[in-house]
Amino acid sequence: MALTTLDPKTALIVIDIQQGIVQLPCAHPMAGVIDRVVEITQAFRRHHAPVVLVNVAGGAPGRNEQPRRLGELPADWAELVPDLDAQATDHRVTKRTWGAFAHTDLHEHLQQLGVTQVVIVGVATSIGVESTARQAYELGYNVTLATDAMTDMNADAHANSVARIFPRLGETGSTAEVIALLAGSRG
After folding, report:
1. Which of 15, 73, 146, 185 has the highest CB neighbour count under 10 A?
2. Quick one: angle between helices 30-46 and 175-186, nearest 10?
3. Which UniProt keywords apply (predicted)?
4. Rounded to whole angstroms, how far apart are CA atoms 12 and 178?
5. Which residues form the domain of 142?
6. Is residue 109 part of a domain?
7. Phi-psi group of 122: left, alpha or beta (phi > 0 → left; psi -120 to 50 → alpha; rest → beta)
8. Model-level pTM?
9. Cα–Cα distance between 43 and 27 in angstroms, integer?
10. Would you say residue 66 lies in a domain?
11. Beta carbons within 10 angstroms of residue 29's beta carbon
């Protein structure tokens, strides 16, 4: 499905573009993903649309069958990459679960701004991005996913999210398409 529109109150949510995550082996070249994330982030700022920068600094408690990869983390593991050029106007969210809405102030912040739609980008497609998209959809936001501004550690998981899950949660498109809609709706 092609992108149709952006609501007048649309926010960008950038998931886990941080030092520890961008060093992991991924399905797509990380440099290109970061370039597109920076491009869309700058476009939202230029149009005075809300930007939310999310990082992960831990994991949810509980047992699972797959051992957690995370052992002792480097001191800068959760720091956002400098390319994002975090601004004072950006809202910062630190999460300890896969999705950015669980146990954070993100929903309340977006509600205070009157946001009705979110554009989501980042890493990992099938984990942080998909979980955040599911939560946003469940909370009633219109959801858009710029699929060329995300990647995953597993190519099959990325492809599954993009082809099977995201079209059920919202609309998908490219960074360029989102930026064009943003410019058209704010021009």
Report:
1. 15
2. 0
3. Hydrolase
4. 10
5. 10-55+81-186
6. yes
7. left
8. 0.93
9. 25
10. no
11. 10
